[in-house]
Amino acid sequence: MLTAKLSVTDTGRLRDETAEPEVLRPAGHPNNAVRARQLSKRFGQNTILDRLDLDIRPGEFIALLGRSGSGKTTLLRALAGLDQISSGQLQVPQARAAVFQEPRLMPWKRAWRNVVMGLHIPQARERARQALAEVGLAHRENAWPGTLSGGEAQRVALARALVREPQLLLLDEPFAALDALTRIRMHQLILSLWRVHQPAVLLVTHDVDEAVLLADRVLVLDGGRIVADLRIDQQRPRSAENHAFQKVRTQLLQLLGVELDADAGAPKPVLHLVPPSPAAPFNLSNFSI
Ligand SMILES: Nc1ncnc2c1ncn2[C@@H]1O[C@H](COP(=O)(O)OP(=O)(O)OP(=O)(O)O)[C@@H](O)[C@H]1O
Ligand SMILES: [Mg+2]
User: Where in the numbering of this chain does the ABC transporter domain appear (predicted)?
Assistant: First the structure.
């Protein structure tokens, strides 16, 4: 795995160490897909990320919760390399892709051209077609973005991420603007794609149930740091009706400052890392969003 190493000098200058990418050892080695140490991000006088430490293992599915304004997008943008960090160290894979709440498609480019936009790869159209097929949109490869539904447009954005074969897939509330039914189907799709491609995933969400349904670990960001790191070891597919699920949900809601009457005595979360889930077979024909 190629890594981009970003660090900041004592004078605050970003040191670009990506010119000679380091080769990470295979999964199983202590090396991680993401390794952040003392990572800080300031906007003027405001410290948003405050000496944050974070490890994500290759292939691990992480959900990140936190109050509005807690810095989730700031962290995601730093991991994506879209913003410079103010200080600290950050190690991420070279192959990264991000999907945001809005699909960010170029309206003057057909779906398949959006998928391979900015890439100079052989057989671009065929690669785009394959990626669109993976998200169940082979039949819309020539569609203009303006003719796509919200769910379809988001799937094109996913295809655009996939075609980059990311080792780190960054998702910033990608389902937030979708209706409930489309959201459920997107959950299934994202899990299936994750199993097939096995990137590390960081999913930012406000939806506690979504986090517990999907992730290996759920993190809570507060005060510029990761204040909780809950391992979710329930088998997938998970059910919100399940007692263990509800217990974790209650813990998370309490951590997020939501007042709850019931189950106030739920045990506090513990901090520990988990290995990636084993890959499972995937059948795309199950999806028709
Ligand atoms: N470019 C910027 N310049 C100045 N301040 C910024 C900038 N980007 C973000 N901030 C501030 O950083 C803080 C964290 O913003 P961020 O978007 O990361 O929060 P968030 O956790 O993603 O919130 P939400 O859940 O509402 O999306 C906010 O106070 C925001 O105003
Ligand atoms: Mg945000």
Answer: 34-248
108 within ligand 1 shell (Cβ under 6 A)? no
**In the predicted model, what is the mean pLDDT of the chain?**
84
**Separation between Cα atoms, residue 161 and residue 113, nearest integer Å:** 13
Cα of 186 vs its chain's centroid, Å: 14
The string over 177-211, giving b where at least 16 C-beta atoms fall within 10 Å of a residue's C-beta and e elsewhere, is ebeeebbebbbebbbbbbbebbbbbbbbbebbbbb
Give the DSSP per-residue string, 1-23: -EEEEEEE-TTSPEEE--SSPEE
What does the pLDDT look like over 231-246, one tens digit per residue?
999 999 999 999 999 9
pLDDT tens profile 46-105 = 999 999 999 999 999 999 999 999 999 999 999 999 999 999 999 999 999 999 999 999
Q: Name the token pair of 259.
A: 């007042």
Tell me, what's the pLDDT at 259?
75
Closest CA to 135 of 152, 112, 110: 152
Q: If pLDDT is split at 50, 70 and 90, which confidence band does 4 have?
A: low
Q: Is the four-CA dihedral 244, 64, 53, 225 of positive or negative sign?
A: negative
Say which residues have a Cβ less than 8 Å from residue 265's Cβ, sequence separation at least 6: none
- List Cα–Cα distances, 260 to 63, 65, 124, 267, in angstroms: 22, 18, 52, 14
48 lines ligand 1 (CB under 6 A): yes
Gap between the Cα atoms of 280 and 188, Å rounded = 13
Single-letter amino acid code for the residue at 228: A
The closest-lying atom of ligand 1 relative to the alpha carbon of residue 83 is: 1
Residue 70, ligand 1, Cβ within 6 A? yes
Q: Whose CA is nearest to atom 7 of ligand 1?
A: 43
Q: Phi, psi (5° rounding) for residue 285?
A: -65, -10
